[in-house]
Automatic annotation (TrEMBL):
Limits of the SPX domain: 1-52
Top-rank taxon, per record: Eukaryota
A Pfam family the protein falls into: SPX
Protein name: SPX domain-containing protein
Length: 52
């Protein structure tokens, strides 16, 4: 079972308005990841140069 299905199946009716709209959140997260700059970790580069 996918998380979105699990979440919607277990919603407490009294709290329904407080739940995150999972599909909207997932889309916003995907857009943010697509726009984000790559993570550059200088220590990773140093380790690669020293050991590989």
């Amino acid at each position: 079972m996918k998380f979105a299905e699990h979440l919607s199946a277990h919603v407490t009716p009294e709290w329904n308005s407080q739940y995150i709209r999972y599909d909207d959140m997932k889309e916003l997260l995907a857009q943010s990841v697509a726009k984000a700059q790559p993570y550059a970790d200088e220590s990773d580069n140093i380790l690669r140069e020293q050991f590989f």
